[in-house]
Write a structure and sequence with these properties.
This protein has 880 residues and is mostly helical. 67% of the residues lie in helices and 3% in strands. A six-stranded mixed sheet has the order 1-2-3-5-4-7. It has a two-stranded antiparallel ribbon with strand order 6-8. The protein is globular, with a radius of gyration of 34 Å. The relative contact order is 0.04.
């Protein structure tokens, strides 16, 4: 080989070796081996001072390990050697910020943009396009344009460039576009499946709506880098939400071994201390978080955000204000402060801030949604009294607005007296006919299906019956539940665990009405006796990532059962003492032990109590379930978990079961000697129904309800027994069955309708009225219950109810509006109300030959004799 060939070979080998060394150092960095990475980089930077990649990696490794002054020295040296590197400018911005030099960081970004503007043709490679796009976003450029013209161009030029996926995914996260963020990170992982930053970004995208996938992504990130700080912090965030403060502290200790001064880790430590009412520790942790960047707005924003997520909105708002003192244009703090103020009922400033955020950042979907919602709510009707401010759509306000005030008033009188609290300021209640509007008002984003209501302490948001068609729920029970939160949150200063807050509200539903609140059902029984009880000390975690919707429902039920146990075993006064202790800053487990018994004893006694409750449910039934090879059963599909203080969307309903198609011979052999087995009896009844053998079905179903009279819900034997009685023509038996069912089920409009029909046929008008009101507690937006209520009121000469029900019918487009107008006119005429004339004219407008209306119109002429008060007149037939 010639001398020149040897020289060229040496050059190629040297470049290859250098590239190999760089790849190794980058792998060390991404795997979390920061010590070896720094050893490799320091030598390489010393040997190759003009290598931009080495210089970038050195400052990143120093930042990752909390060596902020050293990172500043390193980036300063790098810039002295390479004054035109856009990537070094962008990295210097982060380093300068981390050292508290915010003005210098801003100038560095300006240098980057000026350099690109002056020599843009020199910076068209993918890495430079990414940093230019990031800088442009900070400067206020159009996000969509940056995505389309810079990030996507960079991606096409270099599909394996990790920074382009991280930048575009992070942008989507900042704009609360979690679906787009997930797509960007997933796209990156198809190219770079081992990258922990991309896995962590995907976890952030999943966090708001799918905790299970979030956890899977975090596990993937930590499997590739066990020291991955952002993953450890997101996992700590998850533990804080579950009120697993010890677990969160362990994760923050792991972060400390990597970076002693990490600002977000310090913020989370401050959060933990505040949630456990250790103010001195919180101040110390915040000082550590701000050590190198004393006016870092992210620290107080994060502290305030987590406090608000634990319902401490007033404290959260103070931290957002502090963040804005540090950085007045810091939009995350302005946006969160707007949400906090709206949840505190401080609406004027809250809506103003939301509007300002939307004007400053037109692509922030959360701010856009809020501003759009404000326009919708501007058309709502407001009903007020001394204690409540209720907002509903005009249509719904006219139909059942006064009933909302009545239910809330009764809840306030009952619960405030019971718990010894005076709610001093009016409670704001907002009811939304569109579930998307409810979700935006409650969470800032549409979606989150399944909620009925949420309470923030002084503000309640709720879905109206129109928001969940086909899924009946009792709105009166929901409002009672939510006002229970108003009482307990204000009594404790919003310092109470999730499980206790939900448990008391469900318990108080049951105390208020025989059909309200979650009760024992076959699934709850199975979970209790099957060992699925969550220890009381960790009960809040059961709400965070339940295995299924049934597990979430069970968390509500178990929490209410714990409250019932505490009241029965120690008395209501001790429960109130626990709440007062929480308000004084005591930790929940310590408060329970202070006013009841050692927690280990509480958990032992409660487990016994729960088992006794389960065993008392259908004690005459055999509850053994058939195995998979015999006739196994599977539950219905699961639903998304919920995160805020809410009333569960279903209460008494057991899971829907489906037969798995087992071998019939095996099933018959298994069932033969189990005549009182619940599953056998349910299947036998189903078989009789399918064969139209109604007498046999009636016998099995009657035995079922006799053996388990408490079983309500969509799969209750009561419904099927009533159907069998009806098929046999035994309407008296059908009515008796439905009467029993209506006493224990608060969301059965089909049963209430049938009872109205049967009672009307029997002229039992009080029962007609009772079931009409039951129906209206589920759905006040249909004409049928008002029609029956008006009929019953006519027969009992209840004039105010006739007017109420008839006027409601007129708002619901009744099939014969002429008769309804005539009925209203009659009632108004009898009390001398001049409004009678308008209604009789409207009746004649609908039916010009309506003779009775014409006669009434003549009576209403000046000088005509006043009709005598009397009762029970029937509405004549309309002739058109």
């Amino acid at each position: 080989m010639s001398f020149l060939g040897l020289v060229l070979l040496g050059l190629v080998w040297g470049e290859s070796a250098a590239g190999s060394d760089l790849n190794l150092a980058q792998r060390q960095f991404r795997s979390g081996d920061y010590t070896r990475c720094l050893e490799s980089v320091r030598q390489a930077v010393g040997d190759r001072k003009d290598r931009e990649e080495w210089q970038l990696l050195l400052s990143r490794a120093l930042l990752a390990t909390g060596q902020y002054p050293e990172a500043l020295t390193a980036i300063t040296n790098a810039l002295a050697q390479n004054r035109w590197s856009l990537r070094l400018f962008w990295q210097a911005r982060e380093v300068l910020q981390s050292n508290g030099q915010t003005e210098a960081a801003q100038e560095m970004m300006g240098r980057l943009l000026r350099s690109f503007s002056a020599r843009s043709e020199d910076f068209q490679d993918a890495p430079n396009l990414v940093v230019v796009g990031q800088a442009a976003l900070v400067a206020g450029a159009d996000p969509k344009r940056v995505l389309d013209t810079l990030f996507d161009t960079a991606k096409r030029a270099d599909p394996k460039l990790r920074e382009v996926y991280l930048a575009s995914g992070t942008l989507a996260l900042e704009k609360h576009d979690y679906a787009l963020a997930a797509r960007r990170f997933e796209e990156g992982l198809r190219q770079l499946p081992e990258d922990p930053d991309l896995h962590q970004g995907l976890a952030q995208a999943y966090a708001p709506g799918n905790p299970a996938l979030m956890m899977a992504s975090l596990e993937a990130a930590l499997a590739r880098n066990s020291n991955h700080v952002s993953s450890l912090l997101l996992l700590a965030d998850h533990r804080v939400d579950a009120e697993d403060y010890a677990g969160a502290a362990e994760l923050l200790d792991r972060v400390r071994t990597v970076n002693l001064w990490h600002p977000e880790a310090g913020a989370y430590r401050a959060v933990l201390a505040l949630l456990q009412n250790r103010a001195d520790e919180a101040r110390a942790a915040r000082q550590i978080a701000l050590k190198f960047w004393p006016d870092n707005p992210r620290v107080d924003h994060l502290i305030g955000l987590k406090l608000s997520q634990h319902y401490r909105f007033a404290e959260g708002a103070l931290h957002q204000r502090q963040a804005l003192e540090f950085a007045p244009e810091y939009l995350p703090a302005r946006s969160q402060l707007a949400q906090d103020l709206l949840r505190l009922g401080e609406e004027t400033e809250g809506w103003r801030l939301a509007s300002e955020v939307q004007k400053q950042d037109g692509y922030d979907t959360e701010a856009y949604n809020l501003v759009t919602l404000r326009e919708t709510m501007g058309r709502f009707t407001t009903l007020t009294n001394a204690d409540f401010l209720v907002r509903l759509s005009p249509h719904e306000a006219a139909l059942y607005g006064p009933a909302v005030l009545d239910v809330l008033g009764r809840a306030r009188s009952t619960l405030c007296a019971k718990y010894g609290i005076e709610v001093k300021r009016p409670t704001v209640v907002e009811v939304f006919p569109d579930s998307k509007d409810f979700a935006v008002r409650t969470f800032g984003m549409p979606g989150n299906p399944g909620y009925l209501g949420v309470c923030f302490g002084t503000v309640i948001t709720a879905n109206s019956p129109a928001a969940h068609p086909g899924h009946p729920a009792n709105w009166q029970a929901m409002l009672w539940h939510e006002f229970g939160h108003v009482v307990t949150l204000q009594l404790t200063g919003n310092r109470m665990p999730r499980w206790l807050s939900e448990g008391i509200s469900v318990y108080e539903e049951r105390q208020a009405h025989s059909a309200w609140g979650q009760r024992m059902n076959p699934r709850h029984r199975e979970m209790i006796l099957g060992g699925d009880l969550t220890p009381v000390s960790r009960l809040s975690a059961a709400f965070l990532s339940p295995a299924s919707d049934q597990h979430l429902q069970f968390a509500y039920y178990q929490s209410s059962l714990v409250v019932e146990f505490l009241v029965q075993r120690f008395g209501l006064e001790q429960l109130k003492a626990i709440l007062r202790a929480l308000g004084e800053g005591r930790e929940i487990n310590a408060a329970i032990e202070q006013h009841t018994a050692p927690l280990a004893e509480i958990e032992r006694q409660f487990a016994t109590f729960a088992r006794e409750q389960a065993e008392r449910f259908g004690p005459g039934l055999d509850w053994e379930k058939p195995g998979p090879g015999i006739g196994g059963l599977s539950d219905s599909p699961t639903a998304r978990p919920r995160r805020l203080t809410e009333r569960a969307p279903t209460t008494n309903a057991p899971p829907v079961r489906v037969w798995s198609g087992a071998d019939e011979g095996a099933w018959e052999a298994w069932a033969r000697n189990r005549p009182t087995n619940y599953w056998v009896m349910m299947r036998r009844a189903e078989e009789f129904e399918e064969a139209d053998q109604w007498r046999e079905a009636q016998g099995v179903l009657q035995q079922l309800v006799d053996l388990c009279p408490e079983l309500a819900g969509s799969d209750s034997a009561y419904r099927r027994l009533a159907s069998a009685c009806r098929s046999l023509g035994d309407t008296n038996a059908e009515r008796r069955v439905l009467d029993r069912f209506a006493e224990i089920d608060d969301a059965a409009p089909d049963a209430y309708q049938r009872l109205m029909e049967l009672a009307a046929a029997a002229q039992d008008w009080p029962e007609v009225a009772q079931n009409a009101r039951r129906y209206l507690a589920v759905d006040p937006l249909v004409a049928l219950p008002y029609q029956f209520l008006a009929q019953a009121a006519e027969q009992t000469d209840d004039g105010p109810t006739v007017l109420f029900a008839s006027r409601a019918m007129l708002r619901l487009d009744p099939p014969d509006p002429a008769q309804v107008h005539f009925r209203v006119a009659q009632r108004l005429h009898r009390v001398g109300d001049p409004e009678a004339r308008r209604h009789v004219l409207q009746a004649l407008e609908e039916a010009p030959r309506f003779q009775a209306a014409l006669r009434l119109l003549m009576e209403l002429q000046p000088g005509a004799p006043q009709a005598k008060a009397g009762g029970g007149e029937t509405v004549p037939e309309v002739k058109r």
